[in-house]
Amino acid sequence: MLIRSSKVVKVPLELTTAPYHQSILKMNGLSVIESCTHTQNNTGSMFLEDHLLLFVLKGKYTVRYGNQSYTVKKNEMVLLQKSITVEYEKSGEKDEEYLLDYMMFFLKEDLINEFVKMADLKPSYPAALVAVSVKSVNDRLISYIESLKPYFKQPEEISSGLIKIKLLELLFDVADTNENFYFQLLQLKRKERKSITEVIEENIFNPVTLNDLTYLSGRSLSAFKREFKEIYNTSPLHYIRKRRLDKAKELLTHTSLSVTDVCFSTGFENVSHFSKIFKERFGISPSLLKKPLRLTE
């Protein structure tokens, strides 16, 4: 199990509030985030609430998910599905005082559906799933990215309709650039069907919702709940909370992790809520359970 020492940032939502200061364009929940900064070996974790199309203009941005790792360098891009937790490491150009410049486009299902409808393309799929891969950005896409930069200077003056048109333009440009990217966009709509147990074990300690798990399993919500009940003889909420609390107790008892670290590393997002349900389950607060360990250190 990966032990996280800090909270997993939910994106795009939490990137738009302090202490993060990226520039942002928003339209009915659709988000484009620009970051241009000087940084070296900045690391962390983020949970993708929407599909992510990442462009790097300067520097290097590495994302890791499961046993997969993707390093996006200058004038490259990668498309990642939603409802996953990724570890990232980013660093700027060494010869430019570690300047890092990138844009993150968060794509909701509705936008992808509208693109497919507008393009009047017949959903055709390759025989096998197209693997996620890093692709070069051509001059056309670089020009598109540059055309967005002025919008970030006065985002409140940009109409939501224009933002939507620009995002649809992006999807057309990306689809025309590489056929595999078009297939990847379609695959975001057609999730690979995975076993319930595989989905649960891969995400038990991630800050996922029931809808996230449903999406990752490739099932409808009703089908997911039904099959889960058949396998575990309980509800997803009850099972996942029990597993997380059991793991939290183990970490509090046998490691030097703080209550806050244990909270975040087991998939909980609020320390107060975690402490409350922990005490309801075990009859003792996490902080009191932790005290004997501190006395022996």
UniProtKB/TrEMBL annotation:
Can you tell me where the transmembrane regions are? none
Q: Where does the source fall among the domains of life?
A: Bacteria
- Keyword Transcription regulation in record: yes
Q: DNA-binding among the record's keywords?
A: yes
Which GO MF terms does the UniProt record name? Answer: DNA-binding transcription factor activity; sequence-specific DNA binding
> What UniProt keywords are attached to this protein's entry?
DNA-binding, Transcription, Transcription regulation
Residue ranges constituting the HTH araC/xylS-type domain according to the UniProt record: 194-292
Q: Which InterPro entries match?
A: ExsA-like_N, Homeodomain-like_sf, HTH-like, HTH_AraC, HTH_AraC-typ_CS, Tscrpt_reg_AraC-type_HTH
Cross-referenced Pfam families: ExsA_N (PF22200), HTH_18 (PF12833)
Annotated PANTHER family = ARAC-FAMILY TRANSCRIPTIONAL REGULATOR, HTH-TYPE TRANSCRIPTIONAL REGULATOR EXSA
This protein is called what? Helix-turn-helix protein
- What species does this protein belong to? Paenibacillus prosopidis
**Lineage, uppermost ranks:** Bacteria, Bacillati, Bacillota, Bacilli, Bacillales
